[in-house]
Amino acid sequence: MEMARQRVIVDDEVIESGEIQEMIQPLWWSVSIYDGEEQYRRDLEGFTAPQRYLFALQWYLAEVNNGGHDQFYSNSTGIVWEDAMNGAREMGMEELYGIIRESADRMGGEPAKEREDRWDQMSEREPDFGDLNKRLYAMEDIEQRMAAYALENREALYFDGEVEMPVFED
Known about the structure:
By secondary structure, the chain is mainly α. The protein is built from eleven helices and two strands. A two-stranded antiparallel sheet has the order 1-2. It is globular, with a radius of gyration of 16 Å.
């Protein structure tokens, strides 16, 4: 896939659209969840807490909605668990916070940031996330709450800069 630096703008129009994926596009292409905790933290340095929270929750929801908490923690995405949990609390979603907290507790309280270490935790503990998956799937207003949070924190989401992204042919 061809990559090139492209201008990305996150402004009022993007934020008011409620499209979380568009709001976090600068992070989506700039923050590696694949290269370990040190790289993840370094990549996040130029971004605000609201950007981080939306990014982490978007990854969390994508993975859990696709294959449950097992998939979330087994894949590289598990690195975002703490930001997702803190984001849920910051956004006032106490039920979602509780689900993520309980999933972390079932992983030993502090899921490892490194993927292989999380695999070890999962092998040792064999956590059953079935009830937590069901509770999450029953929640209906997560995306709306995330969009409302974005509106409330719009200044922290503004972005106008270049990001290395795939080039899509028309």
